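All the exercises in this workshop are built on plain-text protein records. There is nothing in a record beyond a sequence line and a structure line. A learned vocabulary of local backbone shapes supplies the integers on the structure line. The question running through the whole workshop is how a given chain folds. Here is such a record, shown just as it appears in the course material:

***
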Amino acid sequence: MCRRDNINKLLELLEKTGLNSIIILSPENIEYFLGIETIADAWLMLHVNRETGLELYVPLLDYYRYRDQLEGKDIEVYGVSKKLEAGDARIVRKEWSEILKNIIGRWGKIGVDSSHASPASIILKNIPREKIVDVSKHIDGYRMVKEDWEIDSIVNAIEITGRGIYKVIESLTHNITELELAGIFEYSVRKEGVREYAFSPLILFKPGNSYPHNLPSTTQLSDSDLVLVDVGVKYGGRCSDITRMAIWGSISEEEKRVIEVVEEALGEAIDTIQPGVKASDVDRAARKVIERAGLGEKFIHGLGHGLGVVVHEAPAIRAGSDVELKPGMVFTVEPGVYVAGKYGVRIEENVVVTKSGSRILSRDIDRVFT
């Protein structure tokens, strides 16, 4: 399992922006730069400075976990607590807002990833806006273009996810529930060392799969059903996200046609992918196919999203996105058609942009099981 840091990019960011200090508050950005496991709702603050180097501030209860993960790296770790003691922990007895104000007071204007979600963002509330430079777009630029080791990690996550999908398909039987199948997927990937799902597994029968965002339930597999399997894992610090369909029994001609349309849209979109092409053009290629079939109003979400430290990150592959594709970008391509209250069809591949086009990383997993 491969997990590396990107500290060099963080130091490069100082040079690129001309700033003396940058504060990173988003746990996923801290994970990206330091190559450690974080918790999504954690209060964290990473300070990088030209003179003092790197300092990571964490809640005291997490101090030893982060200190041990960063052993051997030139990063100072501090536990934040105004009252508690903890042996040899390096404790800062200040409020989080005080720590930030002290940094600004010493170094002046700072860069902050203020456009990225973080529970700690509240401490920016009373900081004068002229003291803050939002460096989020720079960070997105780094995270969008994957290094070879990151692509390898995504491929490993895809392979594990694929084996979990086949376990789900093998387990289809009359009256089995969506929740039971979700549990089968979870057990399968846990046995392969997965510590974290990219998102909660979605195994959905009719009519539950007619809603793009839904959760598995106690609904049982019927005699004539469509099974939507949308699953992903995080492995080696990077995520997968794959959707496949399974036909159980006999389905209607309309449903068969929709599956064909979605597959055609998927193919057209992937064929459009080239360096320099706008993300919105890829979305449009898929949407045209679905519109020609008279189903345009049933495709009610963007075509895809980036994959990386988290399952939804830049670039967004959707209408209006002016992001130009570059080699190394990894994202999903997932056209879908949803007939509310009846059925839904979505097929999703994970794709990397290459110098001459694209490569489907998830191509070895059957798209439609019959």
Observations:
- The radius of gyration is 23 Å.
